[in-house]
Design goal:
This protein has one domain: 2-Layer Sandwich (Beta-Lactamase), CATH 3.30.450. The chain is 40% helix and 16% strand. It contains five helices and five strands. A hairpin with a 4-residue loop joins β2 and β3.
Amino acid sequence: MLIGIAVVILVVLAILVLKRYRRTERTVYSEDQADFDFQTAIGRVPAHAPVRVPAPSPAPVGKEAVPSPGSGISVVEGCSTITECLEALVRKFSLESFTLATCDGLMFASSGGGNAPADAAKYSEIFCNDPLSETPGVFLFGLDHSGSRLVGIIRTPREISRKTQDSIENDTKDILNRWI
């Protein structure tokens, strides 16, 4: 008799625990919920969603906007490695550094610098999770190359015009087409 009562109590407790577990485990999102972004949740973000991240303070005197580069300057001619091409891109646009990363945080290529692997890990995750996020002194953009999603990470304290952003993206594509 005591064993029967103990079994009934255990069954009732197990049912209550299962109901509570199932209730907290299930979260169902519908298309009507405006606060849930399905594209971001499944890892699809716009391939060309450029994000300009302004510096936290106005540029000091002498640090004006990056001038539009000359149209005749090539970032692939005379370069024997992809790193040299990215260094040429940095010189052409007066940038601090330029890194290409995969969306999972691996550094693909860089103009150099000790923080390139850390930048790749940090900023590619930021961009792939929220392409419209802002980080002071960093400009992020996404591109597809040969079926791979890549993130361009530019460090610069200067403002970059829309025309210059497009030029940087086009030169990056030229570099990738030459080396990959």
